[in-house]
């Protein structure tokens, strides 16, 4: 039985057992309720709190201040999601629920992180499209430890969803209140603290298409003691989320397509008249279309481009042409290539266990002790396909694996017939087994505080927190460059067999490698070249603080409220490989998901990433500390008009002292309308990775500006990247011709045995290593934010609220790195390029490394304070609750809308030219977003219908300003619909059955293929696509 079959059987068994357990609990709960007439009624839902016409929302003490304040008294807009909202969202993932709010974007998600080494399976949010590292996530108003080794981001899958009472999302600069990172805003997850009884919630969901089943079990149990002075609450959550593989049930996921320019081929490859796509072929070489796409790396191998093994047989450009090809046809990946998409994970397998405990005891009005402890274990697995091997794979010393020697004994006649010398190659290593990213993430969080009343007017709180996150990652079935090079260099062993040429390699177990044809790599050779990666990352966070708040004195319009306090925080990070391999369960083999076979492999402890195909983590150990003091004031100037101010000073042992502040006002002009505004200055200090990290491996797409260059100086017509539209092609050509490696490439063409190659163009690969590095010279980024808006609650329409807010956020000295493409393009477009000293030509050229044949093998991306970012827009909300006379029951309408006016970044290019890149209107960054929810409830029944809308866009506004031209790729607006139904029953309505349909019309989103700035071989953009498709769910809840 395969691992996948076993997992399926285990999941079905778990669901059956747990459903039976819930049924038993329902029966027991009914008996308990019948025997206990004092059973507590359910507390108000989040919607009840938020929309109550009777003013119940005034009872909420909201995020954004340590001064007691309600939603309507806040100078900045706050969106609230209650427990009922979370249930009706149709998802068990808190991030997905919050993402349904306009202005909240996805940062890292399970469906968007499949090809990410460190972040696969995380669930984070991003306010105002400014990034999850500028969105501060709080738990009960306190910071939470990061769940990532390469940034400050909290994964919301580590919070038990059934334990969350409500979520408050506040947009706007909040560094003066909460410190660094709160540039875009704050999301505060407030946990239950007064539930008594036992609540069990069982939920199961399934998709129309294959895979994606999910089972969740939630338990909540709370009680008070000591005559109500003490309280304890335990919450637990288990979730089993089945993986989703790319297959025919989701056609877009396996479509072998790309967006590209089918430039007519030249030379003698036989394809000049063959690449003819209607409406996409001709003299216009800038016209791009959706084209077939296949990988040159096939399971049987492609050699010199002249011989290849596909579909069980050999082809070449001599005597073995496919039947529908002209004589002399080369391998053409669009038609002959390998479709790498089927079978890859589009959603990972996730197993989640969360538990939380909260307890409190009130010794007196002057002292109440509270404690929250939580634990989370999130295990994820996703499969990425098979690794590839080619002659251009580069080791850390800058040398390639290289061509196969012409004397190689395994060269078959079909390749021998076509080769002109040594043999270049591309081969997919199916025999090694599928690559996978297997992560085990554990998180501990603790919050303890003592609070109480110092006087009748002033309260205090003293608190401390600790958080610890650890990630163990296994990456099986990569390959070792060094071992592969040894294994391809073979000779006769004198006994009728073959051996590796290197004696050192033979002493280390080298096994000859045969890559000619499918299934030719022996198990022993696969074991020798296989590399099973392992790494660990750990984050720790300590905080301590104290504050006082209350009323300073009275004024005619009311009391002057204040808060003041101090905080200390220490953040630390460690990343390392396992020196002994003891913790690597697969060091002696990884179990394959299909056939159950255990595959062996070499273990390389703490290896340099240039030696393997895996982008491993560099070892790093870093920490910083910060001490802060802050104060807030709320001054009632006259009746209905309040001035609100806050300030915070922080002293970092890395960047020194920073200062944040905000100033706002709220004016209740009448009983019907309220005006609010705020100006804030916020900072974000560089995080541990940005400040301390050595180069971290990463692979980036690159369109080399020298691509297409011919020895005679022709061939370059345009280049990619920011500012590329202003590049002088003559300058680019001159600079490229001076690169020694490119001249070596041309010299090799001139001296080979095929005269047809003499004027062939320089043809580099389309990707390169783009390691990301920290920078100890960084300083804080600073944002200025302006918000202004109103809330209209007309007395003549009871239950109606209209609100709108304008905002503008400008970030100076934004911490970022210049994109790999921009670095290379800016370097070679520079008139000051000096071929005798490229590194000294400008600040970009020194970051580029080319190999001896001109290929860009590395572009260093290091963090700088280099950009200005601006986001501008409006948010609007309509809330209306009414009970029509002609229909029993109550309706709730909740419409939330976001419109963006501006979303752009700037950085300084060559010649101190400021380059502006507007992302607004591009794919995933549409101008408009909204959510409309219509709810209905009567008696024990409730229902809702929700529509979520996100605007479409074009691929690249900068390079494709004429978005109406058909040659530029566009996607349309996307809308997703869902239905929720619930019925409460039992003597005290303690039982609930609920269910619904997500993505009612099965909109899986647009095709966003590779070849696009926003595309990939997964054919999706995570903000617009719903990989799962239409999904059904049912659940049952009992409370006793």
Q: Can you describe this structure in just a few lines?
A:
It is built from 15 helices and 51 strands. Mean pLDDT is 84; it is low at 1-60, 264-276, 281-285, 578-609 and 960-966. With 1040 residues, it is mainly β.
3D architecture notes:
- By secondary structure, this protein is mainly β.
- Among the domains are: 1-38; 687-779 and 818-862, no CATH class.
- It is 12% helix and 41% strand.
- It contains 15 helices and 51 strands.
- The chain has a 22-stranded antiparallel β-barrel. A five-stranded mixed sheet has the order 1-6-7-4-5. Strands 16-15-14-21-20 form a five-stranded antiparallel sheet, with no helix packed on it.
- The longest helix is centred in the first third of the chain and has 33 residues, at 3-35.
- The radius of gyration is 31 Å and the shape is globular.
- It starts with a helix and ends with a strand.
Main attributes?
single chain; 15 helices; 51 strands; 22-stranded antiparallel barrel; five-stranded mixed beta sheet; disordered N terminus; globular; mainly beta; 1040 residues
